[in-house]
């Protein structure tokens, strides 16, 4: 592969990091004003010499997304075993496998920015530095909680992911094509569980309502703080990484999922207060939500979440021998060169 | 090591780029490609290629097809009698290709 500016053979320097070094040496990276001007759907790829600020912002966003896929999969994994029927077991197993695959796709999209390698990001997740979605810091203990993730959280995620098909970092958009293709099954499977529970015994319905009340505020916080409080929104949106603001996404989610929840017989909790506008859209009273807990979670300091991070770390350590044997194998075949990375 | 993955949906189709995987060798690259890219999408065949072995040239490097008048090489330039069916089909493919090419060159993006 040749760079446009110099014609120096890139593989001699090695991958995205080499390319990044090359742009620093040449001082030819795109300036931020040009990035903002050009920012559009799938506008930038590894061929473009993006400025550090863009690459860092994109890495932060995609790494967060990748981490969330992995942590979500670990949260749902116990329910492969606890599923009440063979069909549900198969579906949960397929879904968990999908989510881990999404994590891998996204780490590749993040790696292509040349800021961090996949190994570094996986290590950051293990040692508690890697950030991920608020909802996946809470424990999930009962089968009636599964649709809270599989229907509502996945539904919220899909709403956001659909907009990210138009993100400006092309490898991220490509990952979203595949993620959205697979995610439809997850959300509809979650909806099927919710439907089953809400047409089941009175006890099942009550337990589901209880789980819904526990999860509802967290689900609304999925979209993060209001735009005013969001620290990263401005830049990410100016350079086309983010396509819709937190507020817009939250409103879009409420507009389709409040009626769905009600249709299945769930009662929307009194807090946070949600008002219906004249045009039929919904608005949340943000002050009713526990933002202290949210920001504690955002720092990876919320207790159940810490346990979940450590649980995954142990699993990663348990299969270290697989990674090491593959790395060693690659070294024997191809020698040194690129930093060795085999599999998660 | 990164391997680029190309998927063919059904026999006779082209292999189209669909993503990439980390793998220590070609056999494992095929295995990971199978799990990551052939598990859910319709797939008849997969190729894996070491990323570093892929070369690229794009519209910023060259003007594909040149910039001078090349009308002599299009079927549309030569009109006499009605053409035989397969010749007319070829001409309509060429006509479409030229239109697409022109809209790219003229900055339609």
From TrEMBL, chain B:
Domain of life: Archaea
Basic and acidic residues bias locations: 98-109
Pfam families: PaaB
Span list, region Disordered: 87-109
TM segment ranges: none
Name the UniProt record assigns to this protein: Putative enzyme of phenylacetate metabolism
Species name: Haloferax elongans ATCC BAA-1513
Lineage: Archaea, Methanobacteriati, Methanobacteriota, Stenosarchaea group, Halobacteria
